[in-house]
Design goal:
The protein is mainly beta. The chain has a single domain, classed as Roll (Pnp Oxidase, Chain A). The protein has a seven-stranded antiparallel beta sheet. A hairpin with a 5-residue loop joins strand 7 and strand 8. The longest helix is centred in the N-terminal third of the chain and has 8 residues. The N and C termini lie far apart (37 Å). The N terminus is likely disordered.
C-alpha cells in the first residue's frame, strides 16, 4: 500500500490530483461551437469521446460555469471541430476566458442548423444533443452525429503537460 507521503503534492481526492494525473494524458483537441442568443459561442475541449457507432454518437464535458454552457443547455445542435497542429492559437483563443472567439482572427461560417463551423479544421461534425448528464461542476453532453466532413489535411493537435503540442515521430 502507498503511504500518503508517497502521493506527491496533490491531496488525495482533490481537483489538483485529477489535474496532475490528466497532465500525463495526451488528448486530442476539439472546439465545440453552438448558436447562442447573442451569437456564436464555443470552447476548447479535450474531453471528446466516441460513444456509439450505431447510431453515431459522441460526448464531451462542458463546465456549467462557462460562458458557452447557456447556449449548449438551451440549444439542440452543436458543432464539433477536430483541430490540427497548425491551430494552436485557435485552440488557445477558444480556451481563454473573455477572448473574442469569433473575432476577425477566426475564420468561420454559419453551417447547418445554424451551427457555427470553423474553417481549415481536420474534421467537423454537426450534432444533435440527446442528453446532458450532470457530473459535478460539468455536464457530459451526448450528441448524435448528423453530418460532417473528415477531409481536412494535416496532423492532429494534442494537449499534454498543460500545453498544446503535436505528434512526434
Amino acid at each position: 500500500m502507498t503511504a500518503p507521503s508517497d502521493l506527491g503534492t496533490a491531496r488525495p481526492g482533490s481537483p489538483g490530483l485529477l489535474r496532475s494525473v490528466f497532465r500525463k494524458h495526451a488528448a486530442g483537441v476539439a472546439v465545440i461551437t453552438a448558436r447562442g442568443d447573442r451569437g456564436p459561442v464555443g470552447f476548447t475541449a479535450t474531453s471528446l469521446a466516441s460513444v456509439s457507432a450505431d447510431p453515431p454518437m459522441l460526448s464531451f464535458g462542458v463546465a456549467t460555469g462557462g460562458s458557452t454552457w447557456p447556449a449548449i443547455a438551451a440549444g439542440d445542435h452543436v458543432g464539433v471541430h477536430l483541430l490540427g497542429e497548425h491551430q494552436r492559437e485557435l485552440a488557445a483563443t477558444f480556451a481563454r476566458s473573455g477572448a473574442d472567439r469569433f473575432g476577425a482572427a477566426t475564420a468561420w461560417r454559419d453551417g447547418p442548423e445554424g451551427v457555427p463551423l470553423l474553417d481549415d479544421v481536420l474534421a467537423w461534425t454537426v450534432c444533435r444533443v440527446v442528453a446532458r448528464v450532470p457530473a459535478g461542476d460539468h455536464r457530459i453532453v451526448v450528441a448524435e452525429v448528423l453530418l460532417g466532413d473528415p477531409a481536412g489535411a494535416g496532423r492532429p493537435l494534442l494537449y499534454h503537460q498543460g500545453r498544446f503540442t503535436g505528434l512526434r515521430e
